[in-house]
Amino acid sequence: MLSWSWPSRAEDRIESWLVQRHQERVLAGDTTPDGSCPDEHFLRDLVRKAKRIELLDPRVDHAANCSTCMSRILVFRQENRSRRRKLALGTAAAVCLVIAAAVIGVARYGVHRQLPSADLAVVSETVNLWDAGTIRGTQPGSLQSVSLPAALVRLTIFLPRFSPPGQYAVAVTQDQDGNGVVAQQTGHATINGDHESVSVELDLRAAKAGAYFLATTHGQDQASYYYPLQIK
Questions:
Q1: Taking burial as the number of CB atoms within 10 A of a residue's CB, which of 67, 122, 151, 168 is the most buried?
Q2: How far is 127 from 14, CA to CA, in rounded Å?
Q3: What is the DSSP secondary-structure string of the chain?
Q4: Cα separations (Å) of 153 from 8, 168, 202?
Q5: How far apart are CA 229 and CA 232, in angstroms?
Q6: Distance between CA atoms of residues 66 and 118, nearest Å
Q7: How far apart (Å, rounded) are the C-alpha atoms in residues 167 and 188?
Q8: How far apart are CA 231 and CA 210, in angstroms?
Q9: Would you give per-residue pLDDT tens digits along the chain (232 residues)?
Q10: Which of 170, 135, 178, 173 lies closest to 154, judged by CA?
């Protein structure tokens, strides 16, 4: 009964050892080949294990027992390995370049989406809240209504009197509880004459005309103040 199975590692080692011993004997001239040496084309096909070569071809037996042919076969084999190694390295380098280009392209696309384009018109607006009343959370108060266009706005806000210095988050929201943020940016308050002011860029191009709230939040105390806002 025939049993088909893959050769074990021990069998592989024995086979490799036998092949190496045979090559040593051939290269040492301890074998006597029959016939004349085949041409280089045949030997290269033999190294490449070309399917058109028949194992019963007498040139195969000659090459397997001829020191000259064996030497040439080993050289051709080394050339093939070197060629495959260079091809693999070239392919790996090309793949790395493609991946790097893709990563850079995605990163640039992300930055392009996040940053305003230089070709876009930026509208400069100033909102003076120096004497404005505010709503903090849901507490009532006397409010000053402000207006901004549905555009890319470079907004300078003169903060209410006694506003502390530091980092501020400026947002446009749909209600005075901070829900439905339309746009938001942070900026650092600076002294502008006798007033504290903060400048940010808000992208309101997607906002529909209507009533909103302009919110300012100080970075340290997280107190949010809301002002009625009309987007035109």
A1: 168
A2: 88
A3: -----PPPHHHHHHHHHHHHHHHHHHHTT-S---SPPPPHHHHHHHHTT-TT--TT-HHHHHHHH-HHHHHHHHHHHHHHHHHHHHHHHHHHHHHHHHHHHHHHHHHHHHHHHHSPPTTS-EEEEEEE-TT---EETT-------EEE-SSEEEEEEEPPTTPPPSEEEEEEESSTTS-S--EEEEEE-EEETTEEEEEEEEE-TTPPSEEEEEEEEETTT--EEEEEEEE-
A4: 74, 17, 5
A5: 10
A6: 75
A7: 4
A8: 5
A9: 444 455 567 677 887 888 888 888 888 888 888 888 998 888 888 888 767 778 788 888 898 889 898 888 889 888 888 888 888 888 888 888 889 888 888 877 765 555 555 456 889 998 888 877 544 444 434 455 688 999 999 999 988 888 888 889 999 999 888 888 999 999 988 887 778 899 999 999 989 999 999 989 888 777 788 889 999 8
A10: 170
Tokens of 232: 């035109």
